[in-house]
Amino acid sequence: MSRLLGSVRARATLGATLVVAVALIAAGTAVLLSLRSNLLGEAGTQAERSAREVATELAVGTPYAELSLDVDDRPVQVVDEDGGLVAASENLERISGTGVDAVKPQPTPTDTDTDTDTDTDDGDDDGDSDDDDDSGESLEPGEIGERTTVSDGSATIDGDTEDYRFAAVPVQNRAGNDLTVYAGAPLSAEHGAVNTALTVMLIGFPLLLAVVGWVTWLVTGRALRPVAGIRREMAAITASEDLARRVPVPDTHDEVARLASTTNQTLAALESSVERQRRFVADASHELRSPIASLRTQLEVAAAHPELLDLDGAVEDTVRLQRLAADLLLLARLDAGERPSDARVDLVALAREEAGGRPGVSVRAVDGAAGEVAVAGSRGQLGRVLANLLDNAQRHARSAVEVSVRRDGDAAVVAVADDGEGVPAADRERIFERFVRLDAARSRDDGGAGLGLAIARDVAVRHGGTLTVHEAPAGGALFELRLPAA
Fold it and tell me: What is the pTM of this model?
């Protein structure tokens, strides 16, 4: 069960089914309550109509024995102010809910006797007519009360027992007697309609929920099918370690399609990174092989013939090997995401420090930048950038190299220009790649390993800046380092 609920498809189906179930229960309850209320109201209206018809007959002086009490076989009671039953439906056998359980009327005097008694006891009748009836209304002879009291109960007529809604209407007959007419309307229609609706709901709601669950299962399965394909392909890529493969992108243009596209972009970036790492390892191994082989050869010759030891060459190869190892270590730290420090570095002072002792190199501050042009970063790494740029410029310059430092808005700019041949426009980005040397005929000793400019750009990017190359005014190369000013 837990594994099943661990599926997005199962959870979506269960969630949709529960939501629909709650909505159906709420709607069904509201429908049943509304239906019952309407039917009860209609039954009350029918009962009141029947009670007022009898009350009208009493108001016009119809004798009790001549009242229309057996219309539609509905229970009717006429009760006096003392609670005595004076008239009732002929076939009424039992009744409850009206407050008067009697079903057989008490003996009553004739209309003439009633009138005589009324005339003789005129004072008493007047006093009775002034009293309030059960409804709280004060009625005059022949008047029907406006207020109607409704109650629920049951009655047995001709052996059939049913539930009824009773309406009680007060009336005073012409003899001045306060009476209450109880008339009932059957609730069988209400019970039948409510039971039918409830049965339909009990049968229909589960079927509807089953349909909702089935449709949701199909729809979510269809929507998640591309996700299953992406998962299978990713598992295959992991097993084969073939980063050239890509996951299928559905034609739905939805979130799943965007997920597949993003996954492919991630795979492409990962493939590029792995390929760059492999190429870096291969190039580093190749670059390290040369000085190590040269140093080994010199040491082996010196071991066999000490008089032939080229000590200067051995030292030079050792220094070159040391520099190459330092460059590789710095690149590894940059690739690992090492963040530079936030020390304050004065570029004017740093440029003069790096240019000191280099023949043909001059440093100047531009546009009032003779003071401090400061940036935040690692002094060692920024010094390495300037050293690499100066080494590159001196290798290609004919006679002079110029370093200028200036402010440009919120940026600090260091420009290194030489008067050499410059960099062709097609190669101005390629020279920043690792182990790239434009002059293939140049020896490794003169040209270096091709890591200086790559390191310089990586350090610039880590400091939130840029390093670009343009054409210098003197026709050579102009390297521009742009960093956020402190």
Answer: 0.52
